[in-house]
Design a protein that fits this description.
heterodimer; A: about 110 residues; mainly beta; 5-stranded antiparallel beta sheet; globular; B: about 120 residues; 7-stranded mixed beta sheet; 4-stranded antiparallel beta sheet; 11 strands; about 50% strand
């Protein structure tokens, strides 16, 4: 079993919809949680990060971490066609915070 | 300013050959990372450097893989006796410092195909 599980999708939603993306993990030592966006044939780019549990909001994006359930989420409000990409969750442990463990990524398609 | 650059963007080689993949990090970034991304998968950690030294090479799959960063800037990932299973996109990232929540900035990757 992988340390980080993520539904690969694809997930197709109409423009303006609220998107919910999720990851579960098994290692309780993970303390840093990140969401990356990756366009086709590009490198991942950081969208959001949180340390330990809680919520964080940035514009149309909200990240949530529930350490008791080992579950993290990314919500995208008012989704746009330009949000179409693969979304990767990533996490790391204190002490080895430079070593990121990624999920498989969820491919999102926002249609007009 | 310039982001992380990687060369070549594509590399096709034959099984058993030796390849070198190059990464130019963002100027001033002291930490540099290599990841490998297979088709349909997330990036998988290989190694990271703090300065010139490899601080964590626990992700290198076997002794055919080796990476250097002799002057603390450019890094080269070297793969000996390539195998078809080595085919993947090799991503390089850099950050201002290692650890904590120092954002890792990724390059576009080198797509390696081993025939």
């Amino acid at each position: 079993q992988k340390e980080v599980e993520q539904d690969p999708g694809p997930l197709s939603v109409p423009e303006g919809a609220i998107v919910s993306l999720n990851c579960t993990y098994s290692n309780s030592a993970f303390q840093y949680f990140m969401w990356y966006r990756q366009y086709s044939r590009k490198g991942p780019e950081l969208l959001m990060y949180t340390y330990s549990s809680g919520n964080k909001e940035d514009g149309r994006f909200t990240a949530q971490v529930d350490k008791s359930s080992k579950y993290i989420s990314l919500f995208i409000r008012d989704s746009q066609p330009s949000d179409s990409a693969t979304y990767l969750c990533a996490m790391s442990r204190t002490g080895t915070a430079s070593k990121l463990t990624f999920g498989t990524g969820t491919r999102l398609q926002v249609t007009l | 300013g310039a982001g992380v650059s990687q060369t070549p963007s594509n590399k096709v080689t034959e099984k058993g050959k030796y390849v070198e993949l190059r990464c130019d990090p963002i100027s001033g970034h002291t930490a540099l990372y290599w990841y490998r991304q297979s088709l349909g998968q997330g990036p998988e950690f290989l190694i990271y450097f703090q300065g010139t030294g490899a601080a964590d090479d626990s992700g290198l799959p076997n002794d055919r893989f080796f990476a250097v960063r002799p002057e603390g800037s450019v890094s080269t990932l070297k793969i000996q006796r390539t195998e078809r299973g080595d085919s993947a996109v090799y991503l390089c990232a850099s950050s201002l410092r290692a650890g904590g929540i120092n954002e890792q900035f990724f390059g576009p990757g080198t797509r390696l195909t081993v025939l």
